[in-house]
Amino acid sequence: ADEVKKAGFQVRSLIWDADRAANLPPDIDRVEGLLNDVSRLSLPLEEVEALVAQVGLLKNVGNNPEVIDYESLRNLLLALEGRPVHVIVITAAESYMNTNEISTTAYEQMRRAEMMVRCSGIPYTVVRSGKVTTGLTTCPRVAAVRLTDWQTTFGERAKAAYEDASERCQISARQVSAVIAGCILNEQAYGKSLELFGEAGPEQKLEEIVGAIEPDNMDADALLSRNDTAVALSNFPPAVIDDIRQVRAQFKQGQRHRTA
After folding, report:
1. Mean pLDDT estimate for the chain
2. How many Cβ atoms sit within 10 Å of the Cβ of residue 37?
3. What residues contact 15, with CB distance under 8 A and at least 6 apart?
4. How far apart are CA 232 and CA 41, in angstroms?
5. Cα–Cα dist 127/139, whole Å
6. Which of 59-73, 119-133, 145-159, 182-196 has the highest mean pLDDT?
7. Between residues 236 and 166, which one has the greater pLDDT?
8. Pick from 140, 156, 138: which is nearest to 148 by CA?
9. Does residue 31 contact residue 54 with C-beta atoms inside 8 Å?
10. What are phi and psi of 85, to 5 degrees?
11. Cβ atoms within 10 Å, residue 205
12. Backbone phi, then psi, for 50, in 5-degree steps?
């Protein structure tokens, strides 16, 4: 939040757990809402220009990756009601690097959430942050690589990428926040999926970090019109495909209303 405020934005926080929100800075707007109830999200999202979505543990839900990592983002997108808000989705590398059952399930739910925002038709940026530390890091340079493993199923390329990433330096939470703050409403970051790591070397400007990343060039209509299992949507259950179609239709309808 500090880095976003430094960039000149007014910050509003969606509160669903008062205990966890107690440590937020006092100058942040607080609006209560429920991530599992679309009707309780309209007010928190009223007149926002950008949405940074990073959902943690939800009270009374437990460690349920489907509710935490997928359904919460779906409900946020539906609550936007077709408005072209810049959505930045933040996911974590830890779930991709671990192989236990919970982490593997979380990976799949995150992948579905990421694909939903890519297919939605709105301005988006997907950020996966690797090996984040809340303390200081000895790697002041932020490195970004284009995230491409969304094009494959879990395993293969994703596992190989994270095995390589395990040898890289940590990145601090402040560094991640600074990149995210620089991406907000920045057209240079629209339609891109990137993975952040720390490494030795001089700090880079945002243009050097994000500007060099190629856009996803997602053809959502082509993917969703296919009857076979398109690679990017492989292994997604029909209910998820229906959710993606609903979100996309909502934003396409909003676009038509704005241009009418």
Report:
1. 77
2. 11
3. 21, 30, 31, 32, 33
4. 29
5. 19
6. 182-196
7. 236
8. 156
9. no
10. -80, 135
11. 9
12. -145, 145
